[in-house]
Write a structure and sequence with these properties.
With 266 residues, this protein is mostly loops. It is built from no helices and four strands. The protein has strands spanning 208-210, 221-225, 243-252, 255-262. A four-stranded mixed sheet has the order 1-2-3-4, with no helix packed on it.
């Protein structure tokens, strides 16, 4: 069966099919061949602004586990586009994996040298918006998890940037009002690595502890040496003369021993 609409203008149809059944199909297509690249329904649009398949209303696709329920290919700027003009918690694209373990609600990949697996844009110039928002209900989960798998090079599991004159490249907030919480936690497995490293100035508005473990420091700067050290735990080098700093105390274990000598070495 072939249908052709020959008018060059107007809202025309090569074929029109309708079903009044509460469980009916306006168009039903089935490719029964057991092999080959087959199509239950195939649509093509030659116009650069046309649609091969256009749907008004919900669209549903199911497929076997070993294959793809829906495959879209193309060379345009947008292979698939979803617009949702609703408000509140409405979403343009919803991905759900019902697997009890190991599933992903969505997967996005790019082979480009400077591409993004997932690009999120919040275009509003005001408001508490987020280009990418992640949330986890698990007691040991991650709202957002980033991993750089290359074993070499200066790569980043997560990188944040801000162009604002009062912005934050990365901001961490622990909202719990009790417990040992962390706004930002850093860990380095390498013995020559740094859990935290900064290029530029550093500032702490509260107390800062070095070697204090999970015990909150009680001084502006508290250095604890639990090893049997005789040389102290604080060394400052600035190329100047030797300075005795009576404001600093050296603590080994639970014992306050002596003021810390700040050695200025060239």
């Amino acid at each position: 069966m072939a249908g052709i609409a020959q008018n060059a203008t107007g809202n025309t149809y090569g074929g029109f099919f309708s079903s009044l059944s509460v469980a009916g199909f306006g168009v039903y297509g089935q490719a029964t061949a057991a092999s080959g690249t087959t199509y239950g329904v195939y649509g093509r649009a030659n116009s650069p602004t046309g649609y091969g398949v256009y749907s008004q209303g919900r669209m549903h696709a199911t497929g076997i586990i070993s294959g793809n329920a829906l495959t879209l290919t193309g060379t345009g700027a947008q292979i698939i586009r979803a617009d949702n003009t609703g408000g509140g918690g409405s979403v343009a694209v919803w991905g759900l994996s019902s697997a009890s373990s190991g599933g992903s609600g969505g997967r996005f990949e790019t082979n480009s040298e400077d591409g993004y697996g997932l690009l999120g844009l919040a275009n509003s110039p005001a408001g508490n918006t987020a280009g990418v928002y992640g949330q986890s209900a698990s007691f040991e989960g991650y709202g957002v998890f980033g991993k750089a798998t290359s074993g070499s090079g200066e790569n980043y599991g997560v990188r944040g940037e801000s162009n604002s004159s009062a912005g934050y490249g990365v901001f961490g907030l622990a909202n719990a009002s009790s417990g040992t919480t962390y706004g930002v936690w850093g860990r380095a497995v390498s013995p020559t690595g740094f859990a935290l490293f900064g290029e530029g100035n550093g500032a702490v508005t509260g107390n800062l502890g070095v070697g204090t473990g999970l015990t909150p420091p009680t001084h502006k700067l508290e250095v604890v040496d639990n090893n049997n050290s005789t040389t102290g735990s604080l060394l400052v080098t600035n190329g100047g003369p030797l300075v005795n700093a009576s404001l600093f105390t050296y603590k080994r274990g639970a014992h306050l021993l002596r003021p810390v000598q700040i050695h200025a070495t060239a």
